[in-house]
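Researcher: Please translate sequence to structure tokens.
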Amino acid sequence: MEVLITLAYLTYWTGMSIDKACAILNFFTGLKLSKSQADSLLSQLAADWQIEYDTIGELIAMAAVLYIDETGWKVGKRSCYTWIFSTLSTVLFKCGVGRGKAVLPDVLGKKFAGIGVPDDYNAYHSQFAEHQLCWAHFLRKAIAVSLRNPSNRQYKRLLKSLFAIYYDAVRLSRDGRLSVGRPARVNHLQSRIRMICRRHGEATRGSTDDAKFVRLQNELVRNTDKLFVFVLHPEVEATNNRSERQARGEAMARKMARTSKSASGAKRRGVIMSVLASLSKRLDHFTLGNVLAEIKTWLDAGESIFRKELAAFQLIPSGTPP
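Model: Translation complete:
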């Protein structure tokens, strides 16, 4: 098991090629594995962990707050994507799928009952009971336009005002003294957004910086109800960085040409990465020894930490407050 987990970690967690992973195993352990043998071992691990992957998927669908991101790459002329669904303790990778709206109900059901925190991609619209848009994406757009036009005062003014509103919202979100006053504070923040977006409603054409500047304002005003959910619910983060950080490893694997090009390879990657990433959230120290110890408890108890958690959720009567 130690060799198998190490192989999975090197191949998927660090993005190393199977050839190099085998060379490292040989150096440290003296074990000589061919590429085909390593490939078979990883396929067997994914098959053994399929039940854990399915359980993680159920936990994700039952989450109160969910952070979502996606990243893509080309396989020949075809585009492939990995979607990452994250909570504080669980991560699900959906690899080798499209970027269409159908991926969401496949993972979450017809409509997610919790709060979703994605970017502004259209596929996410009307998919959540409550929707918090990622602030980082709006701020980056404002920064990009301002940096390309450092002498433009209206670009600079919007950027400065947008950051001021964001920092005020973060402060209010963290203010433990607020309770019944939060909706009124949110209404005021929404009014400030509308005030600073002086050019919203203008028609735009092309991809000039001025068109992007207007589109950003239109987007902000159109989505004021999705900007400050994190103020009403302090347990919610203002960005989807939790999932975006997980996506960076996938992006690096893509750039290094170590992506899973077949459907079976993509599925295998999704299973193994989901279990490893979820364990990394739950273990005090994500080390080989701790992962092996955790898996040993699964074997001894006959069920994993994920299945125990799911069973606990299912014992709670419907409608019981958290």
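Researcher: Any highlights?
Model: The longest helix spans residues 153-174.
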